[in-house]
Structures are given as C-alpha cells and as structure tokens.
Design goal:
Layout lengths: L2 H7 L9 H20 L12 H8 L9 H5 L1
C-alpha cells in the first residue's frame, strides 16, 4: 500500500474526542469575550505589546496538533 492509500484508509477527523469538554471551554471563551467587551472602557485605548506576545508571533508555526484548551490558553 502506498502513502496515498494509507492516508485514505486512516480515519482522521476534526471532531473533538469529548464534546462536553469543548462545550464547556466554548462557554468560557464566550464569557471571557463578553467580559472583555464589558470592561473595555476601563482600559487604555492603546497598550504596548507585551514581550511574551511579541515572542509568540516570532516563534515558528506549530507542526503538531494541540488541544483547543491549549490553543486558547
């Protein structure tokens, strides 16, 4: 069997292994977004980008999958 045939046989999916966990995290993400918007007037209009955020954008792209919880954190 060649690589293409092996890839076709492999059962790959983007579905999470635990929908309940994804649902709970999704609720947390929405709550965080609403909290951010609710309190937006209490923050300065502009802030300098933190060093760790700048370093994140300069890092190489990930080559391996990561859980949605790891991506969000």
């Amino acid at each position: 069997m060649d690589t293409f045939q092996e890839a076709m046989v492999t059962d790959e999916t983007l579905d999470p292994s635990d929908w309940t966990e994804v649902q709970a995290l999704s609720h947390r993400i929405v709550d965080d977004a609403i909290g951010y918007l609710r309190d937006i007037r209490d923050r300065p209009v502009w802030r300098e980008m933190p060093v760790e955020v700048r370093a994140f954008f300069n890092a190489p792209m990930p080559r391996e999958p990561a859980s949605i919880a790891d991506v969000y954190s």
